[in-house]
Amino acid sequence: MYASEKEIIAGCIKKDMNYMELLYKQYAPKLFNCALRYTKKEEDAEDVLQDAFIQIFEHMEQYSGKGTFLGWMTTIVINQAFMLYRKNIKQIKYQLVDYEEYKDSLKDQSVVQHDFLSHQLLLQMIQNLPDGYRMVFNMHEIEGYSYDEIAKVLECTPTTCRTQLFRAKKILQEKITKLYNKQDKH
Amino acid sequence: MKQYKDIGELFKDNFKDYAPEPSSHVWKNIRKKVSKPVFSMRKYVFYGSAMIGIITAITLSVLFLGKDNTPKQQQVEKIITTNNNVEIVVDETIQEHTKAISPTEKVLPVEKKVETRVFDNKASSSSPSAKDEESIKPKEQMEVKVEVKQEPQIANQKQAVITKLNKTEQQTVSQKQTEIFVEKEIVKPVFVSRDTIVCENSNISLYVKNARNVIWSNGQTAAEINVDVDQSKIFTVQYTDGNGKDSSAQIFVRVVPCTQITVPTAFTPNNDGINDEFKVFVSGHMSEFEMVIYSNNNKQLFQSTHVERGWNGMFKGELQPQGLYLYRIRYKDNFNQLIEKKGEFLLIQ
Could you give the CA distance from residue B164 to residue A148 in angstroms, rounded to a whole number? Predict the structure, then answer.
């Protein structure tokens, strides 16, 4: 059965279970990708995805048609992930670090991907980041939010976001370099 | 080898087309939760109408308290119709509610009766105000009965209520009390799976909710059954609904061919006519096919936009060495959804 995005949206507003299932089947994998990146483990990602879809179905009529439909749903997934994040860490202590401290170490940010890196491996790297770092890294680097937007969501200053992002990137860069060094030795 | 300006870019690029399949219980949970509010809302509607019934009954009983009369005893099904009895029958069509709330399921016609009967036997003894009436109640053995039923086993319960009514009625007559009956019968509507379209050889679950004595055309008797479907079929189900009526429904399951691809894990380019090319096998409709083959160090060796055209193991006129190679396949399936598959395969010489 082929249905256009508009038909699916209309069907979901009418709460037609067939269209709901169609929507889920079409978009769940893409959104699961997002949910996985924002959470620590797969079970959490599944919870986030589940809650996000319930929200999507409940508020389907609020999608105004501005921006892509996938983008709109992604925002909901991120919101759900953030709710979980806030539940897990009731108090986030941001250590204010001087940006200057990191300036030098980040001069050379280039990275070489030698061979096929599995998603599993990359995902693991992201999931092992500290919670705050993971949020900022995903939002800024992959979803493309600005520092100001992230600061609003995470309730911190844009400078803190930037510091956290640089730390996250540094950790990831080190991990990838280490990975290749290990491979070279063998 | 791929050079990235920044670590973020590396991750962004790698996750761009990543679409992992979440496990199946996620959808089951969502389905459960999404259809849940339907039932709770219905409850509210029912309780709401019950409340209205009670209020009307009390008001009317107060209004008619002053009148004096003697009731005749009657068979219960058509409860008491004496000279000065007041009988209110509120009929609502349940379908209106259910259609608005749950458009996903077939709703079969159901009767719903909200009947409020107020009758007044001897009012001269009781005082005219409602407050007093309540305070005297224990002494005068006044009874206010409210029956709200929502169970599917209506038939039995109805009987029970009827006998109850019979008893109280007799008491009423002998003791000359004022009685208020508010009776409400709600029969849950029967829900049956909708007609569906599925891929070949898939397993689907069909169900009948709020029904008894279920028999499916394949002989199964469970309310929810799992069936394997390999061709379009009509399933018939016979059941007894909440009103005790025997009924049946048909569910049409249409089978459509779905895109399925099989990617081999190895090939032998030795010109023996067997498995000399690396290509995918497709069943069902497919469009915008693209296959790219990379060497172990991410060098692109081959590209094809036609399913029938496979790789013969050559790159720039040279047969590539034995080993592991990578493929990336993109296509649109019969739902017009872009699918991407990545993986590895062996070249064996």
Answer: 70
Q: Which two tokens stand for residue A45?
A: 């990602």
User: Which run of H or of E encompasses A168?
Assistant: helix A158-185
Q: Are residues A23 and A72 in the same domain?
A: yes
Query: Cβ B7–A109 below 8 Å, yes or no?
Result: yes
| A151 close to A161: Cβ distance less than 8 angstroms | yes
Task: Report the distance separating Cα A154 and Cα A86, nearest Å.
Answer: 9
Q: Which fold has domain B259-347?
A: Immunoglobulin-like (2.60.40)
Rounded Cα distance, A21 and B32, in Å:
12
CA distances from B164 to B116, B144, B146 (A): 16, 13, 12
Inter-chain touch A142–B6, beta carbons under 8 Å: no
Q: Please, what is the Cα angle at B225 between A51 and B22, to 5 degrees?
A: 30
User: Which residues span the domain enclosing A58?
Assistant: 5-88
CB pairs under 8 A between A and B: 133
- What's the CATH fold of domain B190-256? Immunoglobulin-like (2.60.40)
Tell me, yes or no, whether A67 lies in a domain.
yes
- Confirm or reject contact between B32 and chain A (CB < 8 A): no
Q: List, in sequence order, the alpha helices (H) in chain B.
A: 7-15, 24-63, 94-101, 130-140, 154-175
The per-residue b/e assignment along B234-251, b for 16 or more CB within 10 angstroms, e otherwise, is ebebebbbbbeeebebeb
Q: Give pLDDT < 70 ranges for chain B.
A: 1, 36-46, 66-186
**Tens of pLDDT along B195-224?**
877 777 778 888 888 888 888 888 888 888
Distance CA A175, CA A179 (A): 6
The interface predicted TM-score (ipTM) is: 0.81
Largest alpha-carbon pair distance within chain A? 60
